[in-house]
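At this stage, I wrote out one protein's amino acid sequence and its backbone structure tokens, and that material follows here:
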Amino acid sequence: MSQAIDRSWFDDTLRRRRISQNELARRIDMHTSALSLVLSGDRRLKLSEAVEIARELGVTIHALIAAFGLLDLELDGRIPLMGYVNLADPSDGVILNEPTEAESGDTSVVSWPSYRGHILRIVGDGGSPRYLDGELIVISPPRTDTSRFVGREVVAKLADSQAVLKRLEAGTQPERYTLVSLNPKTPALIDVAVEWVAAIDWHKP
């Protein structure tokens, strides 16, 4: 069993993220020898592993699937809609556990097997052209190792219980972060405390 792996893409992506192959293996809780077998084409990635690697490399799951020769990987299954992102509001607020009235009870918006993330629907065009009204994003389960997600778009839960969709940047104080809006007209949140972040794993136009 040998798969065609695009090693140049993988090595370039590691370089851009400034992490080593061994560090990547540690972050996704995979033995270094197992990752080596994957990269040599002698071990097939599970979807759950592909999601974790894509998250750590800061790439989409579809880009990773293509680079790892997994184009026959079936992305089927059902995930419920968890809520929505109100980009019509300057706060970029995320409403969790509350789908819009028309979508209440919808459990088949996006298909992915063995995936534990959640789906959110974009409402409003405040994030245009990055995100448009009606599009979907799939977010990972919440993580508290916030610093690992600096430079990425995330759903962030703030200490005041508000959740927002922003780009996470380092703050000027220890354990504080700056959250940059997708809308350049909206001021950034400076040096805020963040309880958890959820990375955006997938964006479905």
Notes: The chain has two domains: 7-67, 81-204.
